[in-house]
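Let us begin with a simple case.
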Amino acid sequence: MSRPQEPHRPSFPFGNPFRMILPKGSYLSPRLLSLLNDFENTLAERLRKLKPKGTEDVLSCSWMKLAMELLCEIHKDIKILITDLELPVCDWDDKWIDVYLDNSVKLLDICIALSSELSRLNQGHLLLQCVLRNLDTASPKQLVRARSSLDSWRQHIGSKNPKLQNCLTILDSLAESINLPKIKNSAKGKVLMRAMYGVRVATVFVCSVFAAAFTGSANKLIDLHVADTFLWSEAFTDLQSNVNVEIRNIFSSGRVTVLKELEAVDTSINKLYPMVQDGVGPAEDGTFQNSVSDLGKSVEKLSEGLDLLTKDVDGFFQMVLTGRDALLCNLRVSPMHEDNTQARILRSPR
């Protein structure tokens, strides 16, 4: 995979959103404060669990699977909070609804882009299967075929997915608009918006890491600055610093693939490629057979990891879509929002 030469992406200093959501003098009842603290403490704990135990865990398929599962859990938490707040849609301010619907459309578009890239990588798996089949007996004719498949795989993996570029644009848009408007005359609304801020920060972070892994560029990372007034800010800052620094170190060392399982396949191919070049037969010392075996193992691990990631991304897509549909359904039966419902329904994923 080639390394795109791009300027470093800007960070997004958000100041202190706490002042916008809970300005000086705001009052929260003990019950609302308890709900908010429980949500933020749970978010902090989830973020701490995502911190990689070692550098080799960063951007392995298992870690990325955990990251996507984390997003699903956080989005489940916000749904539970909405229920606990006893804040029906008819009591929602229009701007809250607009923020939720706009974010949900963007998240659906991001999921579509990530699923597209996972599908593309899985297509490369078919080429690698052709390589392994042709190396079973390793006759001169089959070696030539294996080399052709290896060349096709390298070209396929090195190509760019235009949907990922759209994903990056959406991520920038989410990050730039992550600040929340002032909430007046609604203590429950202030709790909801503050909690949604945490969900949005975690979502943008995880999606930007996925974008960096799939595009092969650390320039795709987004650095988010969170005020220390949030109970989860320390856990998030520690996680973001740990992961982003490691990804940038990986690229600065000259490696062109970040996804660990894909890197293992690339390493195996680089060792095997000279042995099949021009149909030269395998060495008698077993080096060739060992290299074929290593490639087979790394291909299997990559395939398993991609399958798991695909299921989790699809699961997250369905969760976002279900939440959006539920809100729109509630709007249809809410007299206060009846006039605007049709326009909002038309905001479908691009």
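The second case is a distinct protein. As before, the sequence precedes its structure tokens.
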Amino acid sequence: MAFSAVTKRSRSVGAIFFNARLFPNSTCGSRSRRFTTETSSSSASNQTNLIKQLRERTSAPIKDVKAALMESNWDIEAAQTELRKRGKVLASKKSARTATEGFLALALSHTRNRAALIELNCETDFVARNDIFQHLALSLAKQALLVESGTQAQLGFGAGGFHVGPENLEELKVNLEHPKISGETTVHNAITEVAAMMGENVKLRRVFVMSTSSNGVLSTYLHTSPQPGLGRIAGILTLEVEDGNSQLDALQRVGSELAMHIVAAKPLFLTKELVSSDALESEREILKSQAETSGKPQMAIEKMVEGRLRKYFEDVVLMEQKFVMNDTINVKMLLNNLSKEVGSPVKIGNFFRMEVGEGIQRLEESTAAEPVAQAV
């Protein structure tokens, strides 16, 4: 019996030793498993941090960030370089896609007698809200302030207002001061860089510059503005006064109100005399066709057309429009009252209205010029 008990005990000890050698996942094996798990967890945490850092640096989609890091063996500097190369190629491919979203950016000179307005487009409202995109728009507007008029007379604007072709800004230097994109580069490269970061088509579509004389006041208004200098709709005008010593406060007050009026009322012409003959003839034909359906005599039809033309002028001519802040007077009466208040004749020198995306859909169907409100 004693020998049997010893034998059983020996076999038991041998089995334990045998199992420990072949199956280390028991007592001592648990330490190895715990070490492997901790190492894997630490590696995953480091990779997550690298993904977060690179995304913060570049604002690229998380899928692209992770892929670039994996291809670069988790070297963040190499991955960032790869993302920039890849992004610029994609930006070039996306440049033909329609971009109807974005913002208008407005910059004023230190003396506030000159303003530059630009339209920077992208494909989605999501990108338009990105602070990098908005910083680029504001930087481009500041750069546009420095552009001098070269084709003012050919563009049909009055003194002090002119368009600048976006292509004329491409090689100019712009200084970006955003944490994620900084330094001096060309306008073209800055737009390409932001397009690569955003993953969308980004396009500088329009540039407009306006200035006023030493006796004038330049007023602006931006609608739907997420921050100073940005908006979806803009109104700009200059008020010119004969007496340079007139009350500046009154001119600035009315100027600001008229800039808001321009945004709300959408005038196309400054005075009735400036309505183009083509626009007037087209409107007359439309009104005549409408009146003829009444079945009334020709004389009555002509009176109906003339009456409706007066209404047309009230709709599209700034001086004839009812003032949005006081519809008992029109803009012409408002300026007459202002002239009496400051003791010197006041007139609107120039005005301009711009809205994000206006005319893009029509331009895809026609090569006609974009609709903009302007005075000449």
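Confidence is low (pLDDT under 50) at residues 5-10, 13-24, 151-156, 362-371. The longest helix spans residues 29-58.
Keep these points in mind for the review questions at the end of the chapter.
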